[in-house]
Amino acid sequence: MLLQYHAQWAATHARELGIPYWIVPHGTLDPYVFSYRAMRKRWWMKLVGERLVHESARVLFATRRESAKAESVVGRLQNTSTLPWPVESIPLADKAERRAAIRRTLGIPESERVLLYVGRLQRMKRLIETVNAVGSAPHHGVSLIVVGPDGDLKRSEMEEFCQASGWSNIHFTGPIYGNELFDFYKAADGFISLSMKENFGHSVAEALAAGLPIILSPSIDLVPEITDVNCGWMLPSTSEETVADAIHDFWIASAELLAELGARGRHWVRTVLSPAAFEEHLRRLACSDVSRYRGDTEHVEDGEPV
């Protein structure tokens, strides 16, 4: 993580020891990050950060768009790689059982279409707009389950807002993790994120791993990676009309279409985001950089020492 002293300390010692160091920005080089407390961050980047980034052996980004946005902050980079985060496959053998149990607990009819939101309750993630879009929809066949801890929005405030608006189809669960969270993916028919910024979108990848069709904001950096997969609705904007149309299309879609969209996304995750593929790619990058720093690149073939 950049913008903190430990990054400067680690890079300094790496240089002193003559070993390569990598930087994994995790979104800290996104222009959005510099839209608040900007002066302090920009000074740190000018005095320390830009040198750390440009002198690193490699800067690892989760998506191509994250890499492009970072260059708008630090300038052209010659030392980047794109390595999407790994996502475990989610077993679906008990999907019907978990779906029924969670819907029964939340009081959601089996006939209802369910959209799932997973993430901190934040304005930046456009949670209010998401709740509005589902709650105020003219049809009454779609429910929204919101899973996540409080952020700059509080669960109690959001529940009061929905109650005052007369919306009984919005359900808040608070934070849920691990296998219990996977049960909520199994209980849903689709996943929605209208977030203003996601440099990867891990919950999106988990939804795909669970075979859910997705409705996504264009600001999620995973979108360009999956546009051609045809696994859901990639929105051109987050205008009220555009979001409402997508939710309506989700509502009227046949079960067969939703299953087909979900299967494509699940296959993509298994193929592109598998932990084995991630490990192999990471190992090859590491072998290449270590060999280059040792000056024995002539003994490397395709990133592997021979």
Summarize the entry for a quick read.
The protein has 306 residues and is α/β, with parallel strands linked by helices. Helix content is 48%, strand content 13%.
Stretches with pLDDT under 50, minimum 5 residues: 297-306
Number of strands: 11
User: How are the strands of the biggest sheet laid out side by side?
Assistant: 6-5-4-7-8-9
Largest sheet: 6 strands, parallel
Percentage beta strand:
5-15%
Portion in helices: 40-55%
**Would you tell me the overall average pLDDT?**
92
Report on this structure.
The protein starts with a helix and ends with a strand. With 306 residues, it is an alpha/beta fold. Strand 1, helix 2 (38-55) and strand 2 (58-61) form a beta-alpha-beta unit. A 6-stranded parallel β-sheet has the order 6-5-4-7-8-9, sandwiched between helices. Helices cover 48% and strands 13% of the residues. The longest helix has 20 residues, at 275-294.
Tags for this entry?
alpha/beta, 48% helix, 13% strand, 11 strands, six-stranded parallel β-sheet, 12 helices, three-stranded parallel β-sheet
How does the SSE layout of this entry go?
Blueprint: H1 5-17, E1 22-23, H2 38-55, E2 58-61, H3 64-74, E3 80-82, H4 95-106, E4 113-118, H5 127-135, E5 142-147, H6 155-165, E6 170-174, H7 178-187, E7 190-193, H8 202-209, E8 214-216, H9 223-226, E9 232-234, H10 240-252, H11 255-272, H12 275-294, E10 300-301, E11 304-305
Parallel strand pairs: 1-2, 2-3, 4-5, 4-7, 5-6, 7-8, 8-9
Antiparallel strand pairs: 10-11
Helix pairs in contact: 4-7, 8-11
